[in-house]
Design a protein that fits this description.
single chain, alpha+beta, 2 domains, 6-stranded mixed beta sheet, 3 helices, 8 strands, elongated, transmembrane helix, membrane, transmembrane
Amino acid sequence: MLRVYFKKIINVMLLINVLILLIFIGGFIYFNDKFLGDESISKIEKKSFLCDTPVYKYYSSDIYLTDSSIFKDKIINDLKSVSIPNVETISVRFIINCRGEMDGFTYEAFDENLNKRKLDEIVKTTIFSTMKEIKRMPIGTVDNEKINALFLIRIKVKDGKVIDVF
């Protein structure tokens, strides 16, 4: 009888430990996924660009940058005469601070087989400078506080020409 009682106690203690572990792991994933570490903002040349808030990922903010038309026409027009060989998709990441300014641009370019490619310096500079010219950027908020937020857009290329931005 005593043995059955101890087994029940041990099972309850194991269950409690598993629940505590799950809560800890869930909290770690939630908070780790919501903010970016300092290594993610090392590309920003002017540290004064950032506001005194963490850099959130775009989906942690109260607003999403879902209107890619802000970039679409401008990028397609500005890159009309630029050839982008051997690239099918360009992913551009950037930060919009609490004042609606953009910086911290990074990119990854891929060919049709998803192999990483390097962009020509002129193409990269044109994309980044074109985006910086856009002045009506939405400002992310969390709990009604303006924040720094990391965003991502993708540029679709076909036959060396930009055909879509999403």
